[in-house]
Amino acid sequence: MAQPRLSKLELQIMEALWTRGPCSVREIQEQLPVRNRPAYTTVQTIIYRPQIRARGHIETEGRENRTQVFQDET
Predict the structure, then answer these.
(1) How far apart are CA 68 and CA 62, in angstroms?
(2) pLDDT tens for residues 6-63?
(3) In this structure, are strands 58-64 and 67-72 parallel, antiparallel, or unpaired?
């Protein structure tokens, strides 16, 4: 069975992680195109969704100071 496709925003988030490596929600949000950039909380919601984590795309790497850091699971 084929894996579900990523939405446009999910793909942009993953591209930010692939390009930059492990980073926080704020860093991911700042990597997205300025035009139509989603709000911080929107990016945060996408990252914390169980669906994207269940697909094996994002995992929590750890914390830097008080900021949670995420990375591509591959």
Answers:
(1) 6
(2) 788 888 988 888 888 888 889 999 999 999 899 999 998 988 877 666 666 666 665 5
(3) antiparallel
- Long-range CB pairs of 12-19 (<8 Å, 24+ gap) are 13/43, 13/46, 13/47, 13/58, 14/57, 14/58, 14/72, 17/58, 17/70, 17/71, 17/72, 18/72
- Provide the residue ranges of all domains of the chain, joining segments of one domain with +: 1-56
Q: What's the CA gap between 40 and 32, in Å, rounded?
A: 11
What are the DSSP E strand ranges found in 1-74? 58-64, 67-72
The three-class DSSP label of residue 16 is: helix
